Amino acid sequence: MKVFRWAVRAGPWQPTEAEWTKAASLIQPEEKERIGKFVFKKDAKSSMLGRLLIRKFLVQETGCLNSDLLVDRDKHGKPVYPADLSVMFNVSHQGDFAVLAGASGCLPGHQLGVDVMKLEYTGGRDLNEFFRIMTRNFSPKEWTLIKRFPNENKQLKEFCRHWSLKESYVKATGTGITVNLQNLSFHTISTLDPDLIVTDTVLSSSGEKLTEWYFEESLLDAEHCVSLCRNFNVASVEKFEHLSISDLFLGLDPMNSEDTDYTLEFLSKDERP
Ligand code: COA
Ligand code: MG
To answer: 99 to each of 38, 67, 136, how far by Cα in Å?
Structure first.
């Protein structure tokens, strides 16, 4: 089984009228409508790139035309491809990136989740106050790991790393953050490093190691960590491949007619708050 790991930089993308119109024509009407409701361009762009990543992956792995692919959501909102559940994928978009992890030839019970996170804190409050509010989402052992660093910046990076690990797991299982996050305790051993893919992090729940879950952690750049979670073995782990925006459009035929009004509304929005 081959796992695909793709990343695309959403941050610098300033879509032209033609590009946004094209992108909107490639996705399902309900997704187009959902993306049209975002108040800020930044959120619309990253969600759109997530959809295009999914569609590029499904076209590649199923051989179907984009216009024939119907992506659905399960009861928790996780996107799935019901026509062939052996093709699995998950996307995440945060900070400047949108990422996809995907695999085909999966068996029933296989699960896969991914989460990207910018290593920053923009909450405004003092970091210790933020950590205090987040106390219940991390186990005492995780707080020890996070706070072992004397410097706040490193504490924040370890915090983000643990958050991303938790998200990748709850996205693999599909529950989202409805579960008790404190009960998911990650023991990190290796430090994240630009040249490394870290695979020795272990998840415990209620004090028991969940050895059937594997985590691949890496840095997409100096400011973004990504965690991929799966419950199946693979022959090799690889870094995320960086795709360009134009790579995403390649090979996708439209499923909607072009809608200039939709694009004009998008172009009138502010980039971010
Ligand atoms: N399981 C797996 N994947 C899901 C999902 C689920 N239940 N529900 C949605 N997704 C997919 C979708 O493709 C979604 O993208 P879309 O909304 O554009 O379709 C994508 O995951 C979103 O993932 P990500 O970009 O990593 O967002 P997130 O980390 O904010 O949210 C959730 C992931 C929705 C599964 C959930 O865990 C959540 O609500 N998180 C809140 C995040 C938060 O509070 N962060 C605070 C950080 S300190
Ligand atoms: Mg996330």
So the answer is: 19, 22, 28
